[in-house]
């Protein structure tokens, strides 16, 4: 029997309404108990000093791009999960836009095999909605579900065909899978490459109007209301989008939503100077939109914080803005940006932790995101006072495309445990 006690930390476990000093007992890979801090435990085989730290359920990222198979020059399952555990994430759900696309059980099996070989974070594949992400014909969803997918999504490719979207909502309801949607009405977005406004005019760049996102959200909420199913809206970026989701929730619809750290931390001003590391889809928006996303997180309209970790080779970013790839890496910077919301806009710490643990677990129906006795010992220890500077060259990810280079951060995962096994450890947490 193996036993470890994480001592002296402040446990924040929103799934059980716990927020206080406790010692966490891990035995044979599962949570055995939470004890009163400094209680006599009879002597464990290993003791980890978490004084001054937060001890939370292992963080869960519902939206990452691991790029394997097909784009291993950007990221692999191994490098992506190494970045994940360094950022405090014990579970990640990976999108289907690989090559070949994850639209079959064979690709799903391959991803799971690569994750098992890496033996770092848990990896939960997301299958494609449509074959080849072409938006024409439903993929073999039942086959992929039996192989282990936890959701379906054509992320990066909006489902322009409303009839296909309706069938996806109806069909996935048979399997209890959410449909995760990238909301972009392409006839409105056109060839836009950043938020439409005075800055895009000044830079001479084509803009993406907020209505491109909002129109598709309105359509899909209307379909959801009439067909059933479960709808999860990825990376909300506009005030209007938040309002639409809030109203849908008030009507009792099975809709959930996520926000990415860049959409609640940065505005379109980050693009000024043609900074391609600030180019993403949906684009960075205005200060009013950022505030609306933050309010949505505060009041529960937006239940999940997800990175949309999108690694790209530098050759795909060091080009003209119009042709640069969309997206940024996010696994290693998400946690401090999320923690900042408590100080900057008063979002309770428990709300932030829930958005990165129990809420994504509930949406994907994963048996994680909790420190309940008997649960797998997936644990993240966070030093909330630790200050550090973003240096992309030190990332565990293979890619370096971040708009946060040189930014001062506060808060960092200093120990990450998956199934009772320490997979990441910094020098801020000591053993005894």
Residues in β-strands, percent: 15-25%
Percent helix, as a range, is: 25-40%
> What gyration radius follows from the Cα positions, in whole Å?
21 Å
The class by helix and strand makeup works out as alpha/beta
CATH topology of the largest domain: TIM Barrel
Terminal Cα separation, in Å?
A: 18 Å
**Mean pLDDT reading:** 96
Number of domains: 2
Largest sheet: 9 strands, mixed
Under CATH at level 1, the class of the largest domain stands as Alpha Beta
Helical stretch count?
Answer: 13
In the CATH classification, which architecture of the largest domain applies? Alpha-Beta Barrel
Task: State the main characteristics.
globular; five-stranded parallel β-sheet; 432 residues; TIM Barrel; 29% helix; 13 helices; nine-stranded mixed β-sheet; Urease, subunit C, domain 1; alpha/beta
